[in-house]
Automatic annotation (TrEMBL):
It comes from the Eukaryota. This is Uncharacterized protein. It comes from Calcidiscus leptoporus. InterPro entries: LCCL_sf, Rxt3. Pfam families: Rxt3.
Amino acid sequence: WASDSVCPLQLALCTSMSKRLLDEHAEPPEAKKPRQDDVNAAQHVYQPCALLPALSSKVNSLVEVLLPAKYLTSDLKSVKLRRLWGTDVYTDDSDLVAALVHTGHVKLKAAAPKLPLLVSLRVCPSQTSYSGSERNGLASRDWTKEHCSVSYKIERCLQHTAGSVPLPEMSLLRPGPSRQIPGSIFPQLAGPGQSFVVPMSAAQVVFNLSNEPCYKYSLSLIADQGTTPSRWTSGRLRREVIYLESRHRRFELALTSQKKGTDGHEYDVYSVSQVMRPFTMDRRAMEAAGVPLPAEHVKVMHAEVDWEELVWGPQFLRCRGVEYQLVRILFMPHTVASS
């Protein structure tokens, strides 16, 4: 071989070493992105008499559960057997369909609905005890012994259509740092002279205890309708009063005054009262007495209530640990008592 030539074996070794060095310093390949089918498969699917897997590792997190429509029937065995322990917060071995019935999210019928449900659960730590109660025709059970697992409560329940799991939304019924407008309200505008609208889904007229038309209670009628304070339901109460009815009682939710907080800013306080003799207090009688009603017409149940203390449910209002079942609702503007 000539002195200035390169041995073929040396050339092969140099080429191999150079390729190895390039491979070591090259950027790693991009990780494979999961397919949409894999994402959808990650959500849990309800099965009767089966525990949801791996809840203990998801405390304080949201878990999405797909509930097939075929299980939403009145002859479901787990509901008939009352496989449910607790109220609002249930043991993790409680049946999900029974919990939905107990909280009023669903009403089972003989025939299954067409669409499945997508249920958002908040995983909670184990409770010291679970108190049962009777709601919506279903009595949950007590559990006073130690529960060596986690609990859950229902955050929301929606009809599930084709597509990916929808993103969580903040409820407008508990004001927070950010507010969102329900999608069902976007295409609707208030009419002339009106500041709030009645969603079409909630426009169900019924008769109240004084045999006058009003609306059937719905969360859509309580939800805020905008991001500005003037479109909040709490702001609406500065010029109106909410009258809520159970099957035999009428309640008044009214703004009473303003208080100064520890930060120096004023905030509104409300009162929850029971209206006396509601069967004779029709609209004309209440307007004549003055809205909000004077002390001789109401019995105050809760005074100086902060709006944050009001928890609105699909069929109830909870205030300071007391729950009131609701079936009807009516907004009335402030009036001055006639002389």
